[in-house]
Amino acid sequence: MSMADLRAGLIGLGMMGRHHARNLRAIDGVQLVGVADAMGDPHGVAGDLEIKKSIDELIQVGLDYCVVAAPTVYHDEIGTKLAEAGVHALIEKPLAKDTASAKGLAELFKAKGLVGAVGHIERYNPALQNLRKRLEAGELGDLYQVATRRQGPFPNRIADVGVIKDLGSHDIDLTAWVTQRDYELVAARSMFKSGRQYEDMVSATCQLSGGLMSNHLVNWLTPTKERLCIVTGEKGMFVADTLTADLTFYGNGLQVDTWDGLAQFRGVSEGDVTRFAIAKPEPLRTEHENFRDAVLGKDADIVTLEQGARVVQVCEAMIESSKTNEFIKIS
């Protein structure tokens, strides 16, 4: 460890914590100096580090920043203690169990002048990183709609939230980020098909700023995995597949009226299809490198706590809309 290395801690050694530990050990300029989990170390990631029992014990190790991969219900308490101790934090999504707690954390980190980020890993998927650059460059012209599909089997990990906060949160963040728009109106239908207390299926229709509409299908009741983000606009359609990190563009064809029957039709026609060759670094590695750079005060693309709080707010609007049959306004 060099003198300049950032001292990083990790609380939560479960499914995600295991991957965080691997990346904290792999990136330059960072040393993993402490880990904590009240439940122990099921995946054996601690190495020669003593496993602390609580966030209080972990803070005593002396940290520049901490990754929080404990269950969502503890994020508020852990995040608050880290902020009070002057420790920067990368907190797994969803940021907190409810909008009030999430906004509270965002305000606290801001007041303390600390870097806080949320682990919305999909934003770092190479296909979506590439798509954002292309949309920003105007390759689609005016944006019309975004449709996301995130469907698959039930994940074999403890779910302390339903499918909206667990999985839908990914699509809410990536849609707002890739289009650089904000959610304004949210409507949703949800289902409870597997006897759990939380919803396991949702279909949502939303409006984002600038009149953009979005549609999100999310469930964990599907026997095959699907993770798609489809953006349609004036010049064609992009399809980002975040399972394979592929990005494909379907261009609108040039209209040629060959016979009278078609001459009446002035819509779009099929054009060229392009699959882009893009580099495919591991999204979690990219997320960690960006957070490290943010802590060092460099230019970095992190999911801010404010953005993370907005995602929780949109999730809760979906849950609310499902109960009330109303469109919910996002203030």
UniProtKB/TrEMBL annotation:
Domain Gfo/Idh/MocA-like oxidoreductase N-terminal: 7-120
GO MF annotations, alphabetized: inositol 2-dehydrogenase (NAD+) activity; nucleotide binding
SUPFAM superfamilies named among the record's database cross-references: Glyceraldehyde-3-phosphate dehydrogenase-like, C-terminal domain, NAD(P)-binding Rossmann-fold domains
Transmembrane segments: none
Keywords of this entry: Oxidoreductase
Enzyme class: oxidoreductase
Keyword Oxidoreductase included in the entry's annotation: yes
Keyword Oxidoreductase carried by entry: yes
The protein's Enzyme Commission number: 1.1.1.18
Pfam families on file: GFO_IDH_MocA, GFO_IDH_MocA_C3
Domain GFO/IDH/MocA-like oxidoreductase: 129-238
PANTHER family in alphabetical order: BILIVERDIN REDUCTASE A
Protein name (record): NAD-dependent dehydrogenase
